[in-house]
Every structure is written in structure tokens, then in C-alpha cells.
Design a protein that fits this description.
seven-stranded parallel β-sheet, 13 strands, 39% helix, globular
């Protein structure tokens, strides 16, 4: 297959490119920074990869490159929990997803020949945050900022169905690997200063990096997959359990909590992503027959932390 990928140089995207390339597929990388992308994917190692410059939120010649691709994976979006949520930052977070998806859909609609499938990311933030409710793919949306972002993001992706293109929306949980949220927690544990963040009671719906990449590939290649799927492991945990399990796997104490106010001082409203959570079950994902390599937290953390 030939697959177009936006957000290809990121944490999930770069692993996806490696897996697809190893399997013999051709890859079209849509990137804002071609120099950086060529460093991440040197042509000697990735001879079947083409880099195309694009501005995600603006129509342009880059859209012509979608023609002839068998599938498109849209992973692009501004990071959510790395800066304070000023009004300007919130607009960037929304636009990067809503307009970015709109332009991808626009490109697919006018492509000749058209891709057969769009795999578009969303997030479990769709459900809002809650300490007591269990959510699955049929649960209603929440009423906070991230839920609004996810609704508008998914709304743009849904328009691809007007072009008779199969759509799979993957609502990402917290992806575990050596980067991302877990990557930030590893250093304090190594320094014997690890512990739960905030109250420790918030839910942490997670998925191993290798599993989310496998799920994206299944969504691309399985024509029966359509609609929304939660990209989370079947056993979410509370923050306290995450911290205790990390300590056990790393042979480090996990008693030093990070107070919520410290995170809020850094991230303002963005601290919600870390301090509040939601218990999300991947009901439709399991029904699709997806086989998790790391269904349990301890095995996932052991693989990540012993290979780092």
C-alpha cells in the first residue's frame, strides 16, 4: 500500500512509519519541516518514503499528493499538556485539529484516484473527566474544552464519508513509551523522587505505543472497521496504581506525590489533562478482534522501562 501520514515525525507517527516501512509499504510524509523529517527518516534507511511540505491548516499543492494513496493517517495536532492554556493556545489546539482535519478531508475528496480509508485521531478527552463513570464508544461527550475540541475534530473527519471513503476514528488514551507522559515521569523515579501526581485517585486510561501502532495498521487494512474505537488498553488504572507499578518495575520508591498545585502552576488549565482523568473501556476495539500485545500495565511498563 501507499499511505499518507501527517504528524509522522511525532512519538506515535515515527513508530508507525518504521512498522509500515518494514512491512514493505510506501509512505508519504506530510510535514511542516522537511529538513527535520529527512533527518528522522533518512533516505538510505527509508527508500520507499517521500517527504512533502505542507501547512496543515491551509489548502495548497500538497493536497495533490494524496491522489494515488491507498490510505491516510491523520495524527497531526498541537501538544495539549505542555503549555498554559491561554486563549491563544486554546485556539491553536482547536485549529490544529479542526482545520488540519478539514484540509486532509478536502484533499481526499478531490483526489483522483481517492484513498480508500482515513484513520483520524481523536482523544478520550471526548468524554470529559470523571472519577466514577465508566465510558465506552457509545458514551456521550463531556462539556469541557477538550470534549468540545474532540467533537469539532471528529465532526470534520466525518465529512469524508460524503466522498464514500471509509472512516475510522481512534480516540487515543495516554500512550505509554519512552516519550510523552510516561517519559516525563521516568526521571523522577530514577532519582528516587517518584510518586503519584495530584490526588492519585484520577483514572489513567493508557495504551502501549506498540499496541496503538498495531491498532492504526489494523484500521488501515481491515475493511470491516468503521466508526469510533477507543485506543486504550482494556484495564485502565488509577494514578496511584500507575505510580506503585512504576516503582515496582523500576525498583524505586513511589511515595513522593507531586501536588496538584505544582502542576497547575506550570500548566494552568492544561493541568486538567494530568490531574483529572476518565475510565475508558475499548468495547468496540475488543469486538473488532484486536489482539493487545500489552493488555496489562505491569507487562507494558516492564517492556518500556527495561528497554530504555
Amino acid at each position: 500500500m501507499k499511505i499518507a501520514i501527517s504528524g509522522a515525525t511525532g512519538f506515535v507517527g515515527s513508530r508507525l512509519v518504521e512498522r509500515l516501512h518494514t512491512a514493505g509499504h510506501r509512505i508519504l510524509v506530510l510535514t511542516r519541516n522537511t529538513t527535520s523529517a529527512q533527518k528522522v527518516f533518512p533516505s538510505q534507511r527509508f527508500p520507499n518514503l517521500e517527504v512533502v511540505s505542507y501547512t496543515p491548516t491551509v489548502s495548497g499543492a500538497w493536497q495533490d499528493a494524496i491522489a494515488g494513496c491507498d490510505g491516510v493517517v491523520n495524527l497531526a495536532g498541537e501538544p495539549i499538556a505542555e503549555e498554559r492554556w491561554t486563549p491563544e493556545r486554546k485556539q491553536e489546539i482547536l485549529n490544529s485539529r479542526k482545520l488540519g482535519t478539514q484540509k486532509i478531508v478536502e484533499a481526499i475528496a478531490k483526489a483522483n484516484p481517492q484513498p480508500g480509508v482515513l484513520v483520524n485521531t481523536s482523544a478520550i478527552g471526548y468524554y470529559g473527566t470523571n472519577e466514577t463513570t465508566t465510558f465506552d464508544e457509545d458514551s456521550p461527550s463531556g462539556n469541557d474544552f477538550l470534549a468540545q475540541v474532540c467533537r469539532e475534530w471528529e465532526g470534520e473527519a466525518n465529512k469524508v464519508k460524503d466522498a464514500n471513503v471509509r472512516l475510522v476514528i481512534l480516540r487515543f488514551g495516554i500512550v505509554l513509551g519512552n516519550e510523552g507522559a510516561l517519559g516525563k515521569m521516568i526521571t523522577p523515579f530514577k532519582l528516587f523522587a517518584g510518586g503519584p501526581i495530584g490526588s492519585g485517585r484520577q483514572w489513567f486510561s493508557w495504551i502501549h505505543l506498540d499496541d496503538i501502532v498495531s491498532l492504526i495498521i489494523q484500521a488501515l487494512t481491515n475493511p470491516t472497521m468503521e466508526g469510533v474505537y477507543n485506543a486504550t488498553a482494556p484495564q485502565p488504572v488509577r494514578m496511584n496504581e500507575l505510580s506503585t507499578t512504576m516503582g515496582r518495575v523500576m525498583n524505586r520508591p513511589s511515595w513522593l506525590p507531586v501536588p496538584g498545585f505544582a502542576i497547575e502552576a506550570l500548566l494552568g488549565d492544561g493541568a486538567k489533562v494530568v490531574l483529572e482523568g476518565q475510565k475508558v473501556i475499548p468495547k468496540r476495539t475488543l469486538e473488532s478482534g484486536f489482539q493487545y500485545q500489552y493488555p496489562q500495565l505491569e507487562s507494558a511498563l516492564t517492556q518500556i522501562l527495561t528497554s530504555s
